[in-house]
Amino acid sequence: MQQKKHIILFDGICNLCNGTVNFILKRDKTKQFRFVTLQSDTGDELIEQYKIAPETDSVILITQNQVYIESDAAIEIVRLLSAPWNWLSVFKIIPKKLRNGIYKWIAKNRYRWFGKRETCRIMHNL
Fold first, then answer.
1. DSSP characters for 40-108?
2. What does CATH list as the number for 6-114?
3. Phi and psi of 62, rounded to 5°?
4. CB-based contact 59:73 (threshold 8 Å)
């Protein structure tokens, strides 16, 4: 039986986002995730297909025709990893407004704190 793939859209020029992709790749033992940059044609198509708001500019998870953004995406991604990483999904108990506030603060400052690349990391392995 073929396992359903989860699609992660990410900011391909963001060093923090690329570090997150590397973190997931190292821990994705079952190869359940596929990665697409927001700056790619495939990213544009997925954003249009799933009617994702254009201002959504960091990590997005698409799985089983559901879209997760902001802190919900991060929590759902770690939930899909094996232990001990999936234990981090306990942060879902924090009120969403607070989680998303912290997430947006980090996302807003990510280039200043972590820098960005000159070119986009292209990964189209859907």
1. SHHHHHHHHHTT--TT--S-EEEETTEEEEHHHHHHHHHHHSPTTGGGGGGGGGS-HHHHHHHHHHHHH
2. 3.40.30
3. -115, 120
4. yes
Domains of the chain, by residue range, sit at 6-114
In a 13 Å sphere around the CA of 24, the CA atoms on its Cβ side amount to 26
CA distance 34 to 58: 16
- Taking alpha carbons only, the member of 59, 55, 67 closest to residue 37 is 59
- Single pTM value for the model: 0.87
Query: What are 14's strand-pairing partners?
Result: 116
Query: Could you report how far apart the first and last alpha carbons of the chain are, in Å?
Result: 18
Distance CA 22, CA 119 (A): 17
| Backbone φ/ψ region at 63: left (φ over 0), alpha (ψ -120 to 50), beta | beta
Alpha-carbon torsion (63, 125, 45, 20), positive or negative: positive
Angle in degrees, CA 97, 103, 109, rounded to 5: 135
pLDDT tens digits, one per residue of 74-112: 999 999 998 898 898 899 999 999 999 999 999 999 999
